[in-house]
Structure formats: structure tokens, C-alpha cells
Amino acid sequence: MELTNKVTLITGGKRIGAVVARELAARGGDVALSYARSKSEAEQAAELVRAAGRRAATFAANLADPAAAPTLIQSVADTFGRLDILVNMASVYVQKPFTDLTPADWDANINVDLRAAFLCAHAAAPYMRRNGGGRIVNFSDWVAKSGRPRYVGYVPYYVAKAGIIALTEALALELAPDNILVNAIAPGPIVAPPGTTDEESRAVEAATPLGRWGGEMEIAKAVIGLIDSDFITGETIRVDGGRHVK
Q1: Are 121 and 136 in contact (CB under 8 A)?
Q2: I need a surface site. Which of 54, 72, 217, 226 has the fewest CB within 10 A?
Q3: High-pLDDT (> 90) share of the chain, %
Q4: Are 12 and 90 spatial neighbours (Cβ–Cβ below 8 Å)?
Q5: What is the pLDDT of residue 240?
Q6: CA atoms within 13 A of residue 179's CA, in its CB half-sphere
Q7: pLDDT value at position 130?
């Protein structure tokens, strides 16, 4: 799919999402960004898009609320006149021991990491169908793609990200007749989380065959590659520097 004059919605507009937005704009696309709490970061990402000469807009959306997804999609379509690409990046990532988990903790992860991706896709598909096709890029995790949990304290997160893989495959089958291609990216060590110590960062590098963190551009490249392809659908691609093989 050519990106020129196409409209992409990215749910989650900070850090990696901002770089993805910038690179989409550099290739001629317009970008909408949603945020729950990170308004300033979303606005900064939008400025990167505008600096490339493309249209950008930000939208507040609490995707833990099931009513937020269709409202967000409608707002994007009304603002830009179309919607061609959906990048489901919104995520909750919190470590908590299994014995301390509550139903609210479970819902906080599942509702944003999995249900919101489904609801956004469900609302976006009619607009893509109207345009003759589209692309949906979901976000899983390299651990879930590897098929086994490796870290304790992330039960609902792992379940949600494993569910994204299944959702991606099911949507790819359902939407193929409409020329809507659905894939997922499973990031590994891309950017160190806030608060990571030098020792922790070096440990990640040592556990990664390529010996380094990937950086945001590696995710942007993967997103663009999946958008560009006209014959890849139903795949979950690890971007992890070989972390899963070590």
C-alpha cells in the first residue's frame, strides 16, 4: 500500500509511537494519534508529522472504556475524511505478583491490550472497506510470540499479548475478502523502560544475540514494511534482535 495521502491512526503516541508517526509522515501519510494520559507527548508526535508537511491530529481516548473505540474511529474519520491504516499500540504494562492480582488488575490489562485492539479494528474496518482495503497492525510481545512466559508478575499482560496473536490471525481470515491485511509486531528489547539501571540495560544486551537494544526505528521499519506489503497477512513478526533464540 502506498502511504501518500493515506490516513493512519496510532493508538499510543509517545516514545515508539512518535517515531512511527514521524516515519509515516515522511512517506506522505497523514497521522492521527490517540492518548489516555500522555497529551503532551501525543502533541509532540503530531508536531513531528506537521513538520514533514502532513496533517496530524490528537484525540483523547480512554480505551479501557468499550465506548471509546468507536467514538475515536468516528472522530478520526470525520477529521480526515477517511481511515486507511490502524496501528494498535496502546498498552498497559505493570508487574504485579499473581497472589496480589485482583479482577480490576486483570481487566486493566485485558481491556486495553486486547479488547481495545478488537474494538478499534471492528470500528475501523468499514472505513477501510469503503476505500477498497486497508492495513491493521497490532502489537504483541516477543515473549508471547515465543509461546512461553519467561518473567513472573505479568500474567494478564502475557495472556493479553498472546491473545493479540490469535486475534491477528482470526481478523486476517475474516477481513481478507475486503483486502484488509492484518498483522502484528512482537517487540523485544527496543527501548529501555524508564528507571532501567545501567546494570539492567547491560544484562538485556548480554541476553540479546545482537548485543544491543534495537531502538524505535526498528519498530517503525517493521510497521512500514507490513503496510507496504500486499501479500503478508495473519503474521506476528518478532523484532527482538534474536532474543527468542538465546
Answers
A1: yes
A2: 217
A3: 96
A4: yes
A5: 97
A6: 12
A7: 97
Please write the tens of the pLDDT for every residue from 69-121. Answer: 999 999 999 999 999 999 999 999 999 999 999 999 999 999 999 999 999 99
Among left, alpha and beta (phi > 0; psi -120 to 50; other), residue 181 is beta
Q: Which of 150, 137, 159, 229 is nearest to 188 (CA)?
A: 150
Half-sphere exposure of 174 (CA within 13 A, CB side): 14
Q: How far is CA 161 from the centre of its chain?
A: 11
pLDDT at 194 > cutoff 90: no
Cβ atoms of 221 and 229 within 8 Å: the answer is no
- Which of 127, 154, 157, 158 is the catalytic position? 157
pLDDT, tens digit, 9 for 90 and up, residues 117-169 = 999 999 999 999 999 999 999 999 999 999 999 999 999 999 999 999 999 99
Domains by residue range for the chain, with CATH: 7-245 (3.40.50.720)
Q: How many helices (H) and strands (E) does the chain have?
A: 9, 7
| CA-to-CA separations, 60 to 15, 21, 77, 111, 215, in angstroms, rounded | 17, 17, 15, 17, 27
How far does Cα 107 stand from its chain's mean position? 19
What does 172-208 look like in DSSP terms, one character per residue? HHHHGGGTEEEEEEEE-S-SPPTT--HHHHHHHHHHS
157 is catalytic: yes
- What is the C-alpha separation between 185 and 138, in angstroms, rounded? 6
